[in-house]
């Protein structure tokens, strides 16, 4: 064996991961090569240094925060990721590389607690699964998705201008829509979480957007464990949820909540929020 | 102070790891050990967190090693030196080094956690150890 071959196997040799015959051949080379023997000694010294790295003990604060988040059962309600002001991009606070090692040590050191705790925090909601089917289908075919939703939950096709009789408020779409959208239908839907006014809007290119407006109950369980982030879109703190090639967005608008399904990008969310804020009154198509 | 900031971030990411764990527990299949699965989750969250940054933030030493003859050098904590060196290598190499040297995982377990071939673990550990030694040397450490 030459130096190059031994160098390639040196860590495996040092860690006792080689088969007997390979180990013996590496060992024979090291016995006669000061360069490879020196490198092996370097590995040993590195291990001695690493032995002083201790496992950080998780603070009580971390447990309290985790418990709090679990109790809330919805990351959209109280976003884990710090919100940033950014109109068009999603961005996060700058990290420290050192956190990786500390995270591994801290998280693994408390694995037993985790496993135990899960059984007291079962978090799988039937509605989340049902609504998840709707979200997945909306990306593929909004019309089919709409059928699924209407078959699943009690609903009524309404005139937005008369929605107040059903839900006690005048929905935003009753004021019309931004110029590039046409209103296709509006339903009042009684979902397990809340009663919503849901409108299907068609863009100029024929693609569709669903607008849900509901009372002060937030979008608990709507999105399950889908990737999400909290960002400011215009003046609203929005929960953006990643769907396949699309996003969903939810924010508080006055005393109610607006949730968009089938959004193309953050710019579209900004545009709709701007329109709602300005309370434009375009002609309803 | 830098270390404190680092640990604070670690707390945030740890919190994220556990929330992910609660959400994804149904995806755990008993084909692998729960511990291995948790390691993978922690590694993925940690790497994801780091990749979202625009740039690495190197840690600073609280003391600057001038040379081996400087008496101050003798007092510099080896632990601090290693932490700085670790912060300067690639996250993937840092992960694999910690899994081996601190957590004591076997190559098979590391391969499972990192989702890489078992044969790749040795070569990555070679790189991790050599780069760490280089970083330590740059910081004035002599083996």
Provide a descriptive summary of the structure in words.
The complex is a heterodimer of chains A (285) and B (143). With 285 residues, chain A is an alpha+beta fold. Chain A has three domains: 3-50, no CATH class; 60-108, no CATH class; 124-279, 3-Layer(aba) Sandwich (Protein Transport Mog1p, Chain A). In chain A, 40% of the residues lie in helices and 21% in strands. A nine-stranded mixed β-sheet of chain A has the order 1-6-7-8-9-5-4-3-2. In chain A, a hairpin with a 4-residue loop joins strand 4 and strand 5 (208-214). In chain A, helix 7 (126-140) packs antiparallel against helix 8 (142-152). In chain A, 33% of the residues are buried. Chain B is mainly α. Chain B has a single domain, classed as Winged helix-like DNA-binding domain superfamily/Winged helix DNA-binding domain (Arc Repressor Mutant, subunit A, Orthogonal Bundle). Helix content of chain B is 68%, strand content 0%. Chain B is built from seven helices and no strands. In chain B, helix 1 crosses helix 2 (34-51). At the A-B interface, helix 1, helix 3, helix 4, helix 5 and helix 6 of A face helix 1, helix 2, helix 4, helix 5 and helix 7 of B. Chain A: It comes from Gimesia chilikensis.
> How far do the termini of chain B sit from each other?
27 Å
Strand content of chain B: under 5%
What's the number of helices of chain A?
10
CATH fold annotation of chain B = Arc Repressor Mutant, subunit A
Number of strands of chain B: 0
What secondary-structure arrangement, pairings included, does this model have?
The complex is a heterodimer of chains A (285) and B (143).
Chain A lengths: L2 H12 L5 H11 L3 H17 L9 H13 L11 E2 L13 H11 L1 H8 L7 H15 L1 H11 L2 E3 L6 H4 L13 E10 L4 E9 L4 E7 L13 E6 L2 E8 L2 E8 L2 E8 L2 H13 L7
Parallel strand pairs in A: 1-6
Antiparallel strand pairs in A: 2-3, 3-4, 4-5, 5-9, 6-7, 7-8, 8-9
Helix pairs in contact in A: 1-2, 1-3, 7-8
Chain B lengths: L1 H23 L9 H18 L19 H5 L2 H10 L3 H12 L4 H8 L3 H21 L5
Helix pairs in contact in B: 1-2, 2-6, 4-7, 5-7, 6-7
Organism (chain A): Gimesia chilikensis
InterPro entries (chain A): Anti_sigma_zinc_sf, Znf_put
Keywords (chain A): Membrane, Transmembrane, Transmembrane helix
């Amino acid at each position: 064996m030459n130096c190059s071959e031994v160098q390639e196997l040196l860590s495996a040799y040092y860690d006792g991961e080689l088969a007997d015959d390979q180990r013996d051949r590496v060992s024979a080379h090291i016995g006669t090569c000061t360069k490879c023997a020196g490198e092996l000694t370097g590995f040993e010294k590195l291990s001695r240094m690493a032995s002083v790295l201790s496992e950080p003990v998780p603070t009580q604060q971390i447990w309290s925060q985790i418990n709090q988040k679990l109790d809330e059962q919805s990351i959209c309600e109280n976003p884990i990721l710090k919100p940033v002001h950014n109109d068009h991009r999603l961005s996060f606070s700058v990290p420290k590389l050192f956190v990786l090692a500390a995270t591994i040590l801290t998280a693994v050191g408390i694995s037993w607690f985790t496993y135990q705790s899960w059984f007291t925090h079962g978090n799988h909601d039937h509605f989340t699964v049902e609504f998840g089917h709707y979200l997945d289908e909306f990306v593929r075919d909004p019309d089919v998705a709409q059928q699924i939703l209407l078959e699943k939950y009690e609903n009524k096709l309404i005139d937005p201008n008369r929605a107040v009789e059903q839900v006690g408020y005048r929905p935003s779409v009753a004021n019309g829509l931004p110029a590039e959208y046409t209103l296709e239908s509006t339903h009042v839907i009684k979902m397990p979480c809340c009663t919503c006014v849901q409108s299907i809007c068609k863009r100029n290119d024929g693609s569709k957007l669903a607008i849900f407006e509901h009372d002060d109950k937030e979008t608990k369980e709507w999105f399950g464990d889908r990737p999400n982030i909290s960002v400011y879109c215009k003046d609203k703190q929005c929960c953006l949820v990643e769907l396949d090639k699309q996003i969903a967005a939810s924010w508080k608008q006055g005393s109610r909540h607006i949730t968009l399904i089938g959004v193309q990008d953050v710019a579209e969310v900004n545009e709709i929020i701007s329109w709602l804020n300005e309370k434009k009154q375009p002609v309803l198509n | 102070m830098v270390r404190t900031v680092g640990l604070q971030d670690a707390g945030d990411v740890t919190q994220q790891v556990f929330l992910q764990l609660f959400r994804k527990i149904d995806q755990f299949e008993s084909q692998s050990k729960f511990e291995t699965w948790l390691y993978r989750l922690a590694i993925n969250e940690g790497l994801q967190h780091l990749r979202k940054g625009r740039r690495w933030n190197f840690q600073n030493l609280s003391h600057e090693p001038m040379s081996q003859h400087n008496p101050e050098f003798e007092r510099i904590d080896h632990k601090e030196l290693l932490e700085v060196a670790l912060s300067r290598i690639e996250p993937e190499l840092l992960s694999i080094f910690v899994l081996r040297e601190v957590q004591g995982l076997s190559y098979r377990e590391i391969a499972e956690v990192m989702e890489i071939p078992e044969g790749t673990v040795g070569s990555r550990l070679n790189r991790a150890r050599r780069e760490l030694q280089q970083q330590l040397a740059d910081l004035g450490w002599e083996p």
